[in-house]
User: What shape does this take?
Amino acid sequence: MGGQYFEKRPASARRPARITVTIRGRPFLFQTDSGVFSREGLDRGTELLLEAIEVGPCESILDLGCGYGVIGIVAAHLSQGGHVILTDVNERAAALARANLVANGTRNAEVRIGDVYAPIDDLVFDHILCNPPIRAGRVVVDRIISEAPSHLLDGGSLWLVARTRQGADTLRLRMTKAFDGADVVKRGSGYKVLRSIKSGA
Ligand SMILES: C[S@@+](CC[C@H](N)C(=O)[O-])C[C@H]1O[C@@H](n2cnc3c(N)ncnc32)[C@H](O)[C@@H]1O
Assistant: This one.
């Protein structure tokens, strides 16, 4: 029986799978499993987010709610001189993300386990990237947005993706409240990619 993809220790029987995808012109290989988000293949929202992000070659990046690690691993390859921290509350997802770092030769990244921003203490980033866990509920998603400014450098960005019919416009309003602005930077297949920039003091 399937549990939720955001459980700390999924109880579902293992069903390992491998997917290969080409993202931004480069092939990647991912191990997935039951009990993690989008086991069968790359989520369309995640794919749209990865098409949209503008990441420099030497930046600090947080992939919050990394699942099996696709966003953080692609970001690490876009920012070879930078560093990426991938986090998830789901221990099975975090283990897969660690294995996928190795499988993709990603050396400038690490995986941490924990709730929302707890695993990164007071670290600050150039970018926070997230396909948010809508099913985990409003409290979690609100924390991802409202606590983001204190984990971004001045000029840093929070990037989220969500389905329009799962409340992308509501997320945009919450981002606008937290940051004084949020843009739709890409849309397609019923999803919107949203970006808020932390302005300097
Ligand atoms: C929609 S999935 C996206 C997964 C992955 N980033 C991707 O795009 O395929 C959201 C992820 O957030 C994680 N998550 C849920 N609640 C969380 C929390 N409180 N703290 C950290 N991660 C959480 C889930 O376990 C899940 O892996």
Q: What stands out?
A: The mean pLDDT is 95. Residues 5-6, 37-38, 43, 46, 65-67, 70-71, 87-90, 93, 115-116, 131, 133, 136, 140 surround S-adenosylmethionine (CB under 6 Å). The chain has one domain: 17-197.
